[in-house]
Amino acid sequence: MERPSLEFNLPDTHEEGKLYVVDSLNNLNKLNVCPDESQHSLDEEENTGGTGERMAGSNTRHQCLFFITFILTLIISLALVSLVIFLILQTRNEVDQISSRLLSEKKNIEELKKMNSIILKHLNQSGIKE
């Protein structure tokens, strides 16, 4: 099967007609030159105007969206880390307060034990039995 010749004697037409004929010849050339697998990519290229402007705009939009998402993720992460650090410091302060209370209560209990032993000794010496 022979390929049809892509050279035609085109009659003089208006500019729109010339553009249509050239576009048709380009499409015919793509059909004859390209295998079926790559036709899909060519169709996509035609849909974008063949210049890739839409794809470049789409890529820029995706990069911008990715950058904004990345910045928001960093800000949220920073806020969460700050919150965790604040909670750790608050917990540490509370634990320090509780420890100091326990130490003071321990001292009070030891003083009470000493006073109790002194009272028991005094009672034993005075001869009063329980």
TrEMBL record:
Q: Tell me where the transmembrane regions lie.
A: 64-89
Question: Which stretches of sequence are listed as region Disordered?
Answer: 36-57
What's the short name of a Pfam family annotated to this entry? DUF4577
Keyword Nucleotide-binding among record annotations: no
List keywords of the entry alphabetically.
Membrane, Transmembrane, Transmembrane helix
- Keyword Iron in annotation: no
Q: What is this protein called?
A: LSME1 protein
Q: State the organism named in the record.
A: Lanius ludovicianus (Loggerhead shrike)
Q: Gene behind this chain?
A: Lsmem1
